[in-house]
Here is the input.
Amino acid sequence: MKLFFSLNHRRQLNQRFIPHILATRGSIPRSHRSAGANLGIIAAIGALLSMASPAATQAETVRFTASYYSAETEPYFKKMADEFHQKNPGIDIKIEVVNWDNLLQKLTTDIGANANADLSIIGTRWLVDFQKQGLVEDLGSHMDQSFQNRFIGTLFNVAKLDGKTYGLPIAASARALYFNKQLFTKIGMPDGPKSWSDVEEASKKIKALGQYGFGLQGKEIETDTYWYYSVWSYGGDIVKDCKAVFGSDAGIKGLTEYKKLIDEGLTEPGVTSYSREDVQNLFKQGRVAMVITAPFLINQLKAEAPNIEYGVVPIPTETQPFSLIVTDTVVLFKNSKVKDAAWKFLDFLFTKDPRIAFTKGEGFLPTTKAESEDPYFTQNEKLQAFVNLLPQGKFLPLVTGYDAMSDSVIRAVQNVYLGKAQPAEALKQAAQEADAALCK
Amino acid sequence: MRLIRPYLLILPAFLLAFLVIAIPFADIARTATHEVSRFGILIRFNGADNLLKVFRDPLFQSSLLRTLWWTLFVVAGTNLVSLPVAILLNQKFYGRAIARAIVMLPWSVSLTMMAVVWRWTFNAEYGMLNSVLERFGIISAPVAWLAQSELAFPIEIIVGILVSIPFTTTIYMGGLSSLPEEIYEAARLEGASILRQFFYLTLPLIRPFVNIAIVLNVIYVFSSFPIIWVLTEGGPADGTQILVTYLYKLAFRLGRIGDAAAVSLIMLAILLVFTIIYLRTQEKEQGA
Here is the structure.
């Protein structure tokens, strides 16, 4: 209840006071702010003075909300803001880094208060809601063909709705299976698993060695996605024409397979208490032998668990190899007063060097062609495993009601993992709940 | 003029209270009776639709029931532990100031941080609890404490009790320090046992403090968010969802802000009813 009060409080306060605060902030030259405490006072006085004469606008300020990917995120964007400012002294970039868990909530409150930034990184699946509410700018008028040609086509098209581009792919990630090479060599399967029967066989042998086989996520964000891998692996799909189709035979097979792994003790015990992060940690400790996740684990393993030898293979499948491609999108808000300046910054971010610095630092996959030709990608075998999967990419459906579906699916699979429901019935009910929310 | 004067005198305070309470309330009520976009923009008036939708949601019903259990157990447990602790700390013994400080200390730590620490403690693979239990040979394999709601919810109740103790103990210590020493002296002279002293002197005399401790704890615990959210996010499979986590999920996970506002109105109503009943019983006791 407390939270809700504060939400509404802020809305009212902000509507009245935020514009003034912004106006003053915008007129503080960046050089003053980055200097010492004394200059800070001068800047404050300057701010007071400029409040008296709002007409004096020299520098435009672009506010950018970035999502927290790693400890590198903030330094990277700050550095880019500085470099950009040196090239464009008339434009100030203000970076704000927000945790993923809070990002949607923050954007929701900020937008409700009309106090949102000019640019923001968002999860691509939120885009439909943003676009439906008329909050994001159609970027068509800002970019030409040569700008579009910078991007890898499939990734660029993700943020297209009704043929219009509402965002640019700033981060791309795919999913594959990491396996512990030391353990897999011991059991005589050094190339890793290809199918679910491989996973079962390997897990049984690894269990005999005293470790857990298949790392299964059963808690918090992406618990549904972790199960979707198995749906796709049996040739199924998630949503078709605004109908939930995950309850098909493929879905039931996938869920039954996961349940079997749990029941035979081939996963870590108590899967419903493990978030994705937790399972990755078990992999870093050498406690689980397999985990399906994104390329960023490569960097983490390098830094935190350099002793773990591992390989990367496609997600186990009974049909074609595939991957899940997830992108994050940067959008320009319609209510921005500095659209041209904001666009300039985007243009700069999507040139070669800034892109490479970002992608390398965060351990993402390239979204522009210039990056993908960089030796960093072409010569890294493990990253290449992900890049090779890009053409076989599956995407999560871009529909309204995705969150509601996600909620129902997580509840269903958790109930099955816990033995409180049977796969077929649980999925049937989840599909009914999802159908009531999809595309509404 | 003479008639109006007292009202004029309380008017500023009244206005202030009115603004602080009424404006947010009006805003919530407005949100609850509108169709609202996920960005908090009101779309159209829809009367009691949100309220009815929430009432029909089976998840609301189970969360409501669980909230009642949660409040009952945490408040009862907290008071049962805090009163003896307060009596102990009220005795004169060497190092009492330090003991008091230690009991009070957790109060100064943010509830969310405490919950995060507990989350680590209960972690199945690298949590402190499993490691201790294994070392003493009590368990042979790690227990996934938070994997099942049947286990996770009682654990959350215990954590809820532990974090509520400092505040409640403070109330009781305030009460105990106001009791006159003479009556105990008299009781001892008459040969009353410690237990009799407790039940016939201490308990009746600190009754008002017990009431305050119960009411304030009910209000705090009923709408306490961090413990359950940090430990299990209301899961697995919504098995530890209470009203306030359900409300948060509606608003910020599912974007159903209008429904969430309706839930917060319901919560307000429940607390209001509880407080009124409490005030009534208080009045009766004072009258008698």
Remarks:
- The mean pLDDT of chain A is 85.
- The first strand of chain A starts at residue 60 and ends at 67.
- The two ends of chain A are 28 Å apart (CA to CA).
